Amino acid sequence: MTHWFSRIFSYYRAYHQPSPLLLRYMIVFGIVGLPAMYMLRFLRSPSTYDDILLRLFDVAILAVLALRAYWPDRAKPYYLHFSYFVMTVSLPMTFVFSSLMNGGGPGAVGNTFMAVFMLLLLTDWRNLIVMLLAGFGAAAGLYVMVSPEPRVPMDYVMRLPLLLISIIGGSVFKFALEQGAAERVRQAYASLAGSIAHEMRNPLAQVRHSLEQIRQSLPLPSARAQEQVIDAHSVEQLYRHVSQGETAVRRGLQVITMTLDEVNAKALNTERLSYASAEELCRKAVAEFGYEDEVQRSSVSVVVKRDFVFRADETAFLFVLFNLLKNALHYLPAYPGMHVRLEVDEGRICVTDTGPGIPAEALAELFQPFNTSGKSSGTGLGLAYCRRAVEAIGGKISCNCAPGTTSFVMEMPPVSREEIETGRERVFAQARREFANKLVLVVDDDAGIRASTRQLLLSLMCSVREAADGIEALQALRETKFDMVVLDLNMPRMDGYEIAESVRGQLAPLNRDTCLLAHTAEPEHVARVKTAKAGFDGFVAKPADPVAFIEALQLAVTQRASAPERMAGSLHDRTILVADDNAYNRMSVAGTLRHLGATVIEASDGEAVLALLSQGGTVDAVLLDLQMPRMGGMETARAIRSGAAGERRIPIIAITGYAGPQVIAEGSAAGISDFITKPVDQAALQSKLAQLLGLRTASAAPVVHAQAQEPVLLDEGRLANYLRLGMLAELVDDFVPRSMALVGQVRRASDARDMQAALDAMHSLVGMSGEGGAKSLHRYARELYVALRETGQWPAEDLWVTHLGELTETSNTALREWLRAQGAAAIG
Fold it and tell me: Among 64, 106, 288, 344, which has the minimal tally of Cβ within 10 Å of its Cβ?
């Protein structure tokens, strides 16, 4: 019996769980309507039976439903169960019981019909039958118990067939409406899914192309573990293809975000508006658009008559231009000679194509959601998004058509020169507060660029030092602690990438955590990938507008403050439970948490989460994917909140692809503490966990202008392990003479310009220093070895062999002292 009712009740839950609005409206109607109907009935004619107490009871239980937000957490999961009881009592039971007590009559029959039809709106046909039978039965039983002479009103009985026909007819009619609505929803979802698939085809094709090019650039595979050399051209190609793939993924995610925002009518965020040049945005859009081939690229041009500045969210406006370009280029295969022109004039940006044009009758609905013209595919949301994005920043968009020509005109309010200057001063004032008295190293082989960068930084109250090449810069970085470093990437002798790698690799230990900003003329999408890999915190294009330079520097400082190595370990001694049915997603999030020092428990669904929590171990937080089989994230959260006292207080973070207002509202009602969207960003995840667990994230290391610290020469953990095994003394006795002998071989090979002999000796030194715990020596030797193998050229630094020898001697001395100290400690 219990199983049968659970199955029936599941239809009621499915009916109300997506949206509780129908119940809320019925609660309001009951609280207001029951007393109002009572007053109207007695004003019209007195009744035999006064049902005021029953109506007040109904109002009371309806009020309890209305106050769900104040229910204890343990009771909230039973809200729908209680509503089932309340609706059964307040509708069929109350009205039938009152009708029986009043001896029937037309009013009683009308009240019963009203109760039945209201219940018909509240649930499916299965639960309608159950609730009517339960309500009628309870009313009849109560009537028999309280009435001294119970009798069945014949007019009531005579109208039962009509009531039955009404129930059946109403149910069939409602079923037909629901089926029609479901079909419309299905068609809308199918259209939306197909449209998104169509929109994603181009980004996915670009990703596939990039992966194919990466595969071709990789060396031939081998079953043996050995180092394989990739030539410099192939490395450059790899970075270019990775950057193109990342750009395609970013564009695809923008398509999805735009589509979901448009479907949910989400307002655009106007807080991120900044001053933008119309010319720069148009040229950037043309440069970064995902063309299918070179024919498409050659069909687009930019014409600038008079540039102007307006306030815009760069990402959102670029996506507007991408949409207009995509729509125009859609017709290129059918119109091979077609051309697309982006024209900039004072206050206007016009995107014109010489394609088929748009019929005049289609113009009125052109910017409406889900409307397309002349295309059998597409979301129909692109132009609707364009209109909302343009209007959000105070502009207007319109479409003008003539035979063989279509023009989309965006009229944007230009920013006055006075306002630009005011905004510029605001940026400079904030930068002066942030960067005053900071020590900055500017590295560039171009004296003119060094001078202009120096003047800009001096205007921000910074102290500035300069270096004309990488060797000079590395020497300065070894001797002085800087707050920020601005690095040119392309320099002779030692480029910016090499400097960044050396700094992050402990060859300049004072500045290992210093903010590095790349100053580059490389394309933005390529520079983003390469500089991130090299350890930079940001980049700014050459030549850079002063405001753009300042904003890039501010962003780089923020990135350095939240860099993963600064945050690692902040979740130490914390246990996090991660639930996701996708094993790869689980592994990715778990790996991020373990990097932050957490102990991670994994679960593949909600039932596994509850089972793990019931075992009684300590869990500090739970991360739940919302879409899981058997028991999803929402249901799991509700179950956790209704569990034991300890479980109810556990912070719960939901992982979701889209956290819309309805999802957030439902999740908050289910007891979810916070939301994070996919793909999971490490900094965002750690910040949310730190806030929920009452932790502080590690901040940037304080700047200390003091005596340089000694570099970390030894891997003391490895050495301690050798000590426990009784091998340390033997290792040191063997390592010291052999390492010096290998340095001697490197020196002789360098003098003789014998590259192969140098490589053989360096290979041995790299292996020995790593195994022997000489940490700094291993890192430096490996950097030299890799550079020698990849370039086939001797290092530009003249004293590299001397530095290698000095570092070897320093490491050997440190090894002997560490061994001696451990021996003294053992004797003590």
Answer: 106
